[in-house]
Amino acid sequence: MFENRILYEDNYILVCHKPAGIATQTARIGQADMVSEMENYLARSRARIYVVHRLDQPVEGILVFAKQQAAAAALSAQAAGDEMEKEYLALVCDLRGEDAADGSGILTDCLLKDGKTNTSRVVPSEVKGAKEARLSYEILREELPKIVKIRLYTGRHHQIRVQMANAGMPLLGDRKYAPKEAIAMSESLGIRDVALCAYRLSFIHPQTKERMQFERKPEGAAFRGIIS
Questions:
Q1: Structural domain tally of the chain?
Q2: Which of 7, 25, 157, 222 could form a disulfide with 35 if both were Cys (CB 3.0 to 4.6 A apart)?
Q3: Strand, coil or helix: what is 150?
């Protein structure tokens, strides 16, 4: 039931946990998505729902939605800036070789989205349409598969998957951007879903102006037996 996914709700916002495999919002008829589930949940109150930010369909994690237009505008401004803090946990295959001793760092790249293939790639900054993407990472466990905490500063298309793969730390379960070595490790561990979870979200409440923080450990199959 959708009620079991709700972490917080008031007259202005709704915070929930999105399972892996469900889209945040989709126009495809018959395909489940979070917005449709929330609209059904709120049908009796006739409250509207506004999308503030999204997670890729294979990715699980915490999302905040607005129930009023003014709240949506305030939260969207936070999501576009640095007041909304988004942290992820990921399982990676570390292919950096000698650079693997670097247990933390900041990745800054320029990404170009290809709408025809629904992919993004790292390109030089002078490429037309390229957008800056920035994140920081910290390796929490050195044993394979490595557990990495990621702080996202920009919200580009497939950003974490693209940047981490480009840096030699592809996500397990990712068949779109990971090289064959990471795919082989995923298969050996039985990981079929992208091992990425938006486990912590912090923002300023659009009405009370208080900072709120929510955290939920990964529940998807990719993390079972690895993160308890």
A1: 2
A2: 25
A3: strand
Is the residue at 95 inside a domain? yes
56 is catalytic: yes
**Which is the catalytic residue, given 10, 33, 56, 114?**
56
Residue 116 lies in a domain: yes
Report yes or no on 56 lying in a domain: yes
- For residues 29 and 114, membership in a common domain is answered with no
CB atoms within 10 A of CB 209: 8
Question: Which tens digits make up the pLDDT trace of 110-144?
Answer: 999 999 999 999 999 999 999 999 999 999 998 88
Question: Where are the alpha helices (H) located in the chain, listed in sequence order?
Answer: 34-41, 69-80, 159-166, 180-189
Residues 107 and 155 in one domain: yes
Distance CA 71, CA 13 (A): 7
**Burial grade of 166 (CB within 10 A; 0-12, 13-18, 19 or more):** middle
